[in-house]
Specification:
The chain has strands at 29-36, 47-52, 57-62, 70-71, 83-86, 92-95, 102-109, 120-128, 134-141, 147-149, 154-159, 163-170, 181-185, 191-196, 202-205, 213-220, 231-234, 242-248. It has 271 residues and is an all-beta fold. The strands form four sheets. The chain has a seven-stranded antiparallel beta sheet with strand order 4-3-2-7-8-9-10, with no helix packed on it. Strands 5-6-1-11 form a four-stranded mixed beta sheet, with no helix packed on it. A hairpin with a 5-residue loop joins strand 13 (181-185) and strand 14 (191-196). It is rod-shaped.
Length: 271
């Protein structure tokens, strides 16, 4: 950015006029926010990384982890004094990334109860106002491959939650059943949640971890039904609803024997 300098004659006898100008370079700034799908709160426990266009990892960290940032500076690539720190809200602030260079924010592992978000490709740009003021902004690449300039230097990545729906069914009719009590336990046998089934199913949102296998155990069955065997399910990395179905058989009906009637009546002689 050009620096304006004003020069004027001191007097008719002064042949040389000296002017001194100091120009200071300010590091680029970039804020990374890891939010839930509503954008209302920061999500801790997500493992994240920023890579350059060549796939080199520049930074990696765990959201909310003040001491988790690992910086891989590359002096040959032009990085100088790359710095990163968290603010009081848990957002990561990075200083020293190169402007007009592509970076990719990737979630390498989601937090418990969340699914992996899509990676975000972005660039740091400079917005120069009419008065010459320079402010940092980001340009986010959309699905069409076009970089869209934002109004600030933030990159916001949002995570959706895991969604599991337990459906309790009559084995013969396929109808939903209410009144069955269930426990959901993790791989270590710890009970994560309990609930009572409904005809429309029960949604378990944000409690189960991607890649983990859980056991759905029926503790008590609806009246007139047998308790089903436990069902195991491994949570997939998707924001779509994942259905887990458990079927119950009716308690067998025992028909009492019908007493026999009729037949030959014995005749006894009269003495």
């Amino acid at each position: 950015v050009a620096v304006p300098i004003h020069l004027e004659y001191k007097d008719a006898d002064t042949k040389l006029i000296y002017a001194q100008c100091t120009k200071k370079n300010k590091q680029t700034s970039n804020e990374i926010d890891k939010m839930d799908i509503t954008g209302s709160e920061e999500v801790p426990g997500c493992e994240l990384a920023i890579t350059d266009a060549e796939g080199n990892t520049i930074l990696s960290w765990t959201s909310g982890g003040a001491d988790s940032v690992k910086i891989s500076e590359n002096e040959i690539a032009g990085y100088r004094n790359l710095k990163a720190s968290f603010d009081e809200k848990g957002n990561l602030h990075i200083n020293g990334l190169l402007h007009d260079k592509e970076y990719t924010l990737t979630e390498t592992r989601p937090a418990s109860g969340y699914v992996t978000a899509e990676s975000i490709c972005y660039m740091l740009r400079q917005n120069i106002s009419a008065d010459g003021t320079v402010s940092p902004v980001t340009a986010i690449r959309n699905k069409d491959g076009v970089f869209v300039v934002q109004s600030d230097d933030k990159v916001i990545m949002k995570d959706d939650m895991t969604k599991i729906r337990l459906i309790k069914l009559d084995k013969k009719t396929g109808q939903g059943l209410h009144g069955a009590k269930f426990e959901v336990s993790d791989e270590d046998g710890n009970v994560v949640t309990t609930f009572i089934s409904t005809e429309d199913g029960v949604d378990i949102t944000g409690l189960l971890t991607v890649g983990q296998t859980y056991t759905f155990t029926e503790i008590s069955a609806p009246e007139g039904y047998q308790i089903a065997k436990p069902v195991k399910y491994t949570v997939k990395d998707t924001a779509e609803i994942q259905n887990v179905s458990v079927t119950d058989k009716r308690v067998p009906t025992i028909t009492p024997p019908v007493p026999q009637t009729g037949g030959n009546i014995p005749v006894f002689p009269i003495a």
